[in-house]
Amino acid sequence: MISVRKVYVSVDACFDTEGQVLPRSFVWEDARRYEVDRVLQICRAASLKAGGVGLRYTVRVRGKQTHMWLEDGNRWFMEAK
Amino acid sequence: MDRMILHCDMNSFYANVECLYHPELHEKPVAVGGDEAQRHGIILAKNQEAKKYGVKTAEAVWQAKQKCPELIVLPARYDLYMQFSQLAHKIYARYTDRIEPFGLDESWLDLTGCVGLTGDGHAMADELREAVKRELGVTVSVGVSWNKVFAKLGSDYKKPDAVTVITRENYREKFWPLPASDLLYVGPATTRKLAAYGIHTIGQLAQAGEPFLSGLLGKWGGYLWAFADGRDISPVLADGSQSPIKSIGNSMTTWRDVDSADEAWLVLLSLAESVARRLRENGFRCRTVELSVRDNRLSWCGCQKKLKTPACTAGELAAAAMALLREKYVFERPLRALGVRACDLVGMENGLQVSFFGDARRQEKRERLENCVDALCGRFGRGAVTRMSLLRADIVQESDPLTHDVHPIGYFGR
């Protein structure tokens, strides 16, 4: 199995009036800020590669599709190759 | 119409949750075990890889490491397992409100109401199994049948991550050849008794007939016969309808052996304190106190005592436990573990039946005192107020993890 790391990221998120939380941007390990262009899907899912569970956001960042997890409702992590 | 009952069993629950959080241990033998330094070193759960080496639940960690030297033993994180158990419960709750948990990792679900929507038990079970795997990253095995006993047998039939459907057509072929001890409530003693009459399989149990089994085992004989023949009709309790607590107990394996009654008293007192606190937290008094002891040869004994009046204070529980110890145990061998359990619980809201001969006022005072200590400890932290006798007791260490066990109402608990 390819080794994948679990990376916690700092996230700017929007809490809408429906109670939904949507990530707007995050700061990656290299200290650069990335905008989330679009949230494509939200569902509960496990990350078998990084090891964790939570709400999984399928997002588009700079034209590429990736996942962000909201763990325990208060911490975000992503998978790093 | 037959009911559709599912039994979901989360495979190697603790070990699989840990494996999820440790992806680097993928395909390595992993077990969750107690702390060896504190003499709690037994295997609590193991993954499939460890199973291949013959590692067994409840054996000592060193024994397991002899079978499998590269075994990775991780400490248990009960909070995490509780959280996963609740998340699984939430998934089940999408399908039905009739969910009856049986421990942390098992639940019965009554999906009879869904039959009209989906029709097929196998498809429903597969959907559920997939959902748990996708969302929680751990696997479940599911048994589907028209009664709870067969559903449970079904979930054990094929593991992990599998579905077994038991119908009125195939149960004889699938279950009857299984050993009788696979059946719920057939323990070692019953297995021996049955074997003496040539009853070794579930099929033989079913064919022995009710009159014979009742004669042999009493009331339980009748139940077991009904279980084996698929005649169990007990309902799946509605979600949250059962009082979750039947008894509250604590046990402690001390860091060194206890070799006198005085030391045992200190251990019992600290156990009773925690049991009594939890009784009060949950609004109960108990009518019976149970003591369990394990000596240094690991032989185990338990005994009970009825209290004159229901109690919820550490003093009373510890005194009852100590009386039992003095009565039943001579210190031939030092003790390794002690346990105190409060059973036969009554709710505090029902008031207190006072004894004609007891001193109700003193009891009330004691309760007020301990409530006050609870409040102080709640405000200033555990240990803000401690018994002086426990202060200088080296046998009871603050770091001793108490085994908190809250027992759910059993199969026939109501």
Please report the distance between the alpha carbons of the first and last residues of chain A: 11 Å
Oligomer: heterodimer
Provide the gyration radius of chain A in Å.
12 Å
- Sketch the major β-sheet of chain B: 5 strands, mixed
Give the amount of beta strand of chain B, in percent. Answer: 15-25%
- Mean pLDDT of chain B, as a whole number? 86
Largest interface: A-B, 14 and 15 residues
Q: Strand order of the main beta sheet of chain A, please?
A: 3-2-1-7-6-5-4
Structural class of chain B: alpha+beta
The helix content of chain A, as a percent range, equals under 10%
DSSP strand content of chain A: over 45%
Offer a few descriptive terms:
heterodimer, A: 81 residues, mainly beta, seven-stranded antiparallel β-sheet, 7 strands, globular, B: 414 residues, alpha+beta, five-stranded mixed β-sheet, five-stranded antiparallel β-sheet, 16 helices, 13 strands, 40% helix, disordered C terminus
Blueprint (SSEs and pairs):
The complex is a heterodimer of chains A (81) and B (414).
Chain A: E1 5-15, E2 21-27, E3 33-35, E4 38-47, E5 52-61, E6 64-71, E7 75-80
Antiparallel strand pairs in A: 1-2, 1-7, 2-3, 4-5, 5-6, 6-7
Chain B: E1 5-10, H1 13-21, E2 30-33, E3 43-46, H2 48-52, H3 61-67, E4 72-75, H4 78-92, E5 99-101, E6 106-110, H5 115-118, H6 121-136, E7 140-145, H7 148-157, E8 163-165, H8 171-175, H9 188-196, H10 202-208, H11 210-217, H12 219-228, E9 247-258, H13 261-281, E10 284-295, E11 300-311, H14 314-328, E12 335-347, H15 360-380, H16 388-391, E13 403-407
Parallel strand pairs in B: 2-4, 7-8
Antiparallel strand pairs in B: 1-6, 1-7, 2-3, 5-6, 9-12, 9-13, 10-11, 10-12
